[in-house]
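Design a sequence for this backbone.
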């Protein structure tokens, strides 16, 4: 897998890195699955291709839970939707999520994974 750092936006606390690992996301009882587009220690951009129900701007700030399929272990953390990229935006359809209340073990596993893709 070829990964690289993405341009750092000043409003972000952590740099983002390209990744293509699988994820499973549950938001208000709805389950989504796909590939991670990029990841940081604070969140991720998740590709949402051919999913039902569709995510819209009304999905913003909904809370849920995500399981990231990382090489060393699956990591499950709480999350909140912070951005929705639709087919009409410049981004690949997907959502930006922020990790919420991440415990120390999960944070360590995410950090270790990021170190491997830098």
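Sequence:
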């Amino acid at each position: 897998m070829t990964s690289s750092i993405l341009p750092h936006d000043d409003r972000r606390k952590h740099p983002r890195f390209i990744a293509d690992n699988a994820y499973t996301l549950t938001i208000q009882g709805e389950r989504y699955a796909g590939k991670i587009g990029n990841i940081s220690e604070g969140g991720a951009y998740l590709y949402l291709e051919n999913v039902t129900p569709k995510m819209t701007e009304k999905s913003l700030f909904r809370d849920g839970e995500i399981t990231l399929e990382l090489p060393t272990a699956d990591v499950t953390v709480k999350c909140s939707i912070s951005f929705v990229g639709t087919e009409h935006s410049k981004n690949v359809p997907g959502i930006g999520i922020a990790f919420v209340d991440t415990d120390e073990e999960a944070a360590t596993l995410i950090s270790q994974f990021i170190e491997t893709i830098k």
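DSSP finds one helix and seven strands in the chain.
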